[in-house]
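cron nightly-structures :: item 1 of 1
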Amino acid sequence: MQIITNLKEMREKAREARAGGKTIAFVPTMGFLHEGHASLLREGRRRGDVLVLSIFVNPTQFGAGEDYETYPRSLERDAAVARETGVDIIFAPDSREMYPEGYQTFVNVDQLTLPLCGASRPGHFRGVTTVVAKLLNIVTPHTALFGEKDFQQLAVIRRMVADLNMDVEIVGMPIVREADGLAMSSRNSYLSREERKSASCLNRSLAAVAYNYGRGVTSSGLLREKVMEILAAEPSAVVEYVDFRHKDTLEPVERVSDDTLLALAVRIGKTRLIDNMIVGRGFPCREKC
């Protein structure tokens, strides 16, 4: 396994792989890898002759007062996960090389970035699409894999790739959850033991919607009320949004169907957590809904 920090070297390795008729699978991350990332890497290993993992905490997707400086980082820890999952190349560029002095070009997707996380984190998705576009240009993968936990991000990246005629297949992978149902996230490391218990209100909310939808409740208003009841019962939970949207367009829906996305953003203490589900896929109730 190689660790590459130089953009030109990474681009040359990609050229060599393609010239040799090899397919490149790519998993872009901000590091501090967990089992969710590992699932992407294992699928990437299955799909590609060369598996590239990028580790880059992207400053342009963090807003003022967010956790860019404190975001967890451990290249040594990440390299161990990478070796276990068969990564060939870790691409870990420096921010000064990704955004050199005088940098002024950004990629923006208009409509899909407006609701949900886009409403509360202005400029976030512009940073995401810009860095992903840059990484795709450098690594030139045949396939790039992203987790569905960041569902809006996945939708935005798919739109960008389609609109800009990028020659890469974007693959979405299912959310991987902890034993207690909490969606795996690098930011889970911020939670104290008590906060971790409180965070179960997110997956209990998803389970309650699945339960009630399965019994014929399709009003997004009624289902949202059930979610808010569960979240309101948790004193440390501060709701940013609870929203029902069409899974492809992210347009709001009044009547929930199998194609409806339920997306949540909730702060537990100082930690911002997101979760989601496609209603028609269901959700396992780990306790009474």
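cron nightly-structures :: done
The CA atoms of residues 133 and 164 lie 10 Å apart.
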